């Protein structure tokens, strides 16, 4: 006899069907191993171990059975189970086996983050235990000493979205489960919201002379670290080299010289964690200075 599919509160017995074709039944008994006892060896025939103290359970299975499911077990507990084939036509030995149920894992045991943005985040937890958990209480605040916010969800949920968060901030999020047994379990995680990276709002090029251009732009947004400029020959972009320049955040214009007759100029805002969407313009030099709006 073997034991399979052991969980925190159940297990399955499996045996060779020795009563096939005979009149009879299988008697199954199981219960916790008595304190100080070890039960009898698993899998082979032998004397039925003690499951005394009134804690054992008994049921029968038909002669054509070869499996049985034991339910209502306690987590992290050693059990002994006996199988006695009974028939008026032939005598059989009692088989016994001992096994230990898995320890109980109380929710939340794991927390994960998804759908992370600058002002919201989805927090997920598990395992889902709707039969054991009444509700979940989620607390969150910015570190080191931000205002504490909280939300309560039912025990049937294993995720929720926290909204109206501050961009580019570190939050401490704690998920607490209120179990029907009266037990409370909590788990925390740190989350960093994404930075807001506004795009460049405007870009203008004005040619000056035969090979220079005045570059003017508008940018905004907290956390701006500067601007990244690139320019290259639009007519021969395969072989031409791209030139670059960094400018501080207070700069809103610059002048580029010695440009090719058809030059593509791009400006992108730079933030702490990423580069925002920029704009590009193409400057074409003629005898008279011209002004050009942005082209993406």
TrEMBL record:
Stretch list, region Disordered: 33-67
Biased composition annotated in UniProt, kind: Gly residues: 34-55
UniProt-listed SMART domains: FN3
Pfam assignment, any one: fn3
The keyword Repeat belongs to this UniProt entry's keyword annotation: yes
Domain Fibronectin type-III: 1-104, 107-199
Cited CDD domains: FN3 (cd00063)
Ranges of compositional bias, category Polar residues: 57-67
Annotated InterPro entries: ECM_Regulatory_Proteins (IPR050991), FN3_dom (IPR003961), FN3_sf (IPR036116), Ig-like_fold (IPR013783)
Keywords associated with the record: Repeat
Protein name as catalogued: Fibronectin type-III domain-containing protein
Biological source species: Neogobius melanostomus
């Amino acid at each position: 006899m073997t034991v399979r599919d052991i969980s925190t509160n159940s297990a399955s017995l499996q045996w060779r069907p020795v009563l096939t074709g005979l009149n009879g039944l299988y008697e199954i008994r199981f219960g916790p191993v008595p304190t100080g006892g070890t039960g009898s060896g698993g899998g082979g025939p032998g004397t039925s171990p003690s499951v005394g103290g009134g804690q054992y359970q008994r049921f029968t299975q038909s002669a054509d059975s070869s499996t049985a499911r034991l339910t209502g077990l306690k987590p992290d507990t050693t059990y002994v189970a006996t199988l006695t084939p009974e028939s008026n036509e032939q005598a059989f030995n009692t088989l016994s086996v001992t096994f230990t149920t898995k320890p109980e894992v109380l929710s939340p045991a794991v927390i994960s983050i998804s759908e992370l943005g600058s002002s919201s985040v989805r927090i997920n937890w598990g395992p889902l235990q709707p039969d054991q958990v009444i509700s979940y209480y989620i607390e969150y605040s910015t570190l080191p000493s931000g205002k504490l916010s909280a939300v309560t969800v039912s025990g049937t949920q294993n995720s929720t979205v926290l909204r109206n968060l501050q961009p580019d901030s570190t939050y401490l999020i704690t998920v607490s489960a209120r179990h029907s047994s009266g037990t409370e379990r909590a788990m925390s995680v740190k989350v960093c919201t994404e930075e807001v990276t506004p795009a460049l709002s405007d870009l203008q090029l004005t040619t000056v002379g035969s090979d220079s251009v005045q570059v003017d732009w508008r940018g905004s947004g907290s956390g701006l670290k500067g601007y990244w400029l690139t320019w290259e020959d639009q007519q021969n972009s395969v072989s031409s080299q791209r030139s670059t320049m960094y400018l501080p955040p207070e700069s809103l214009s610059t002048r580029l010289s010695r440009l090719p007759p058809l030059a593509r100029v791009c400006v992108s805002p730079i933030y702490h964690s990423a580069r925002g969407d920029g704009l590009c313009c193409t400057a074409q030099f003629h005898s008279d200075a011209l002004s050009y709006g942005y082209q993406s």
